[in-house]
Amino acid sequence: MDHHLSPEHEELRRTVEKFAHEIVAPKIGDFYERHEFPYEIVREMGRMGLFGLPFPEEYGGMGGDYMALGIALEELARVDSSVAITLEAGVSLGAMPIHLFGTEEQKRQWLPRLCSGEILGAFGLTEPEAGSDAGGTRTTAVRDEATGEWVINGTKCFITNSGTDITGLVTVTAVTGRTDDGKPLISSIIVPSGTPGFTVAAPYSKVGWNASDTRELHFDDVRVPGANLLGQEGRGFAQFLRILDEGRIAISALATGLAQGCVDESVKYAKERKAFGHHIGEYQAVQFKIADMEMKAHTARLSWRDAASRLVAGEPFKKEAALAKLYSSTVAVDNAREATQIHGGYGFMNEYPVARMWRDSKILEIGEGTSEVQRMLIARELGLTS
Ligand SMILES: Cc1cc2nc3c(=O)[nH]c(=O)nc-3n(C[C@H](O)[C@H](O)[C@H](O)COP(=O)(O)OP(=O)(O)OC[C@H]3O[C@@H](n4cnc5c(N)ncnc54)[C@H](O)[C@@H]3O)c2cc1C
Questions:
Q1: For residue 192, how many C-alpha atoms fall within 13 Å in the half-sphere facing its CB?
Q2: Which of these, 130, 134, 164, 356, is most buried using a 10 Å CB contact count?
Q3: For every one of its 386 residues, what pLDDT tens digit does the chain have, with 9 covering 90 and above?
Q4: Structural domain includes residue 2
Q5: Pocket around ligand 1: residues whose beta carbon is below 6 Å from it?
Q6: How far is the CA of 1 from the centre of ligand 1 (A)?
């Protein structure tokens, strides 16, 4: 892997860095406090083409790749994770399944508006009784032989981007049949927002990511055309495993951004804050904390970029994506804890970005596969389990 960014990737990094500091940073704290989705910021991200970064130009994308998406996510999360997860879920979970598994017609119908940010897509996998063990999906989709429609019943929980004013669709996994030995056949089906019987609960009250949208979804005899099946019937399980493998790289880039943001804020504060007659950054105890934080952010960056470059090159990347996600989320939590400590009492005040980073870090060890699940994947790749 060449660890230098190409001129195009470096230009993208600078553009998103500037946007994050000039547009996101001054406004996002208020949205976060009000638990409000930042439509104006998301609209601007759409205008910049961020939602179309890894998609082909013929569908309205920017013709970039997963590396480009990771770079944008890292720079956004360096300043704020709510906008970063809105982008991550919109691209990796909302649009990518349609890009990877959709028919030509589905791509033409959905991708241009998803790429421009006019609409957001969501991915409904998790259920109240099936998270890590997503094969335990209970939502069902039964084909109505008379009309060819799918009739969907069930509940999904914790679904990002699923209830905003601009949410256009949710791709849900549902049991559509059984194998001869009784195992569930899971398929993915596109459900447009506003379909009768599809209801979206009020936003959750969350510990962090408070300017992002997360909801519980209910499907009560929801009817969608047979043509809304995404990919082959019964392949939904394999599809979401692929989506989650890629998504882990994106979450890892986001976690790296948070870890680096903690360094940025700590360096700034350590040069300003005085105690016992000196700036606290003059004390070796504080210097060593920040040096360790920088080491972790740097190593996390190498890790997600390694996984992304393997994905872009068409090489196997499953283990590297799990390693990157596990490592970067762990160090994001570490760095957020230390950055808060360096800020003293001010670190516990929500007006300081590190307080937001502290609250936003924990979910990184849970979403898109918990740290335990990453360890299971790594152990499997090492041949320890089947
Ligand atoms: C803010 C937020 C946004 C989210 N967005 C989405 C989304 O857009 N789409 C979506 O589908 N989901 C989404 N999720 C769901 C998320 O992916 C799940 O919460 C996560 O996968 C864990 O599932 P669970 O909550 O059911 O925990 P469980 O699976 O019940 O796990 C509970 C604990 O048990 C551990 N555990 C489980 N099995 C094992 C095992 N075999 N060995 C060892 N330990 C084990 C887990 O690691 C964890 O520590 C979101 C969640 C949150 C909080």
A1: 11
A2: 356
A3: 677 899 999 999 999 999 999 999 999 999 999 999 999 999 999 999 999 999 999 999 999 999 999 999 999 999 999 999 999 999 999 999 999 999 999 999 999 999 999 999 999 999 999 999 988 999 999 999 999 999 999 999 999 999 999 999 999 999 999 999 989 999 999 999 999 999 999 999 999 999 999 999 999 999 999 999 999 999 998 999 999 999 999 999 999 999 999 999 999 999 999 999 999 999 999 999 999 999 999 999 999 999 999 999 999 999 999 999 999 999 999 999 999 999 999 999 998 999 999 999 999 999 999 999 999 999 999 999 87
A4: no
A5: 89, 93, 122-126, 131-133, 158-160, 206, 209, 214, 363, 366-370, 372-373
A6: 32
- What domain range is 36 assigned to? 7-120
332 Cα: distance to centroid of ligand 1 (angstroms)? 18
- 103 with 215, same domain: the answer is no
- Which residue's alpha carbon is nearest to atom 6 within ligand 1? 159
Q: Is the pTM of this model over 0.85?
A: yes
Examine the domain organization and report whether 112 and 169 are in the same domain: no
Q: So which residues are the catalytic ones?
A: 368
Ligand 1 atom at shortest distance from the alpha carbon of 127 = 26
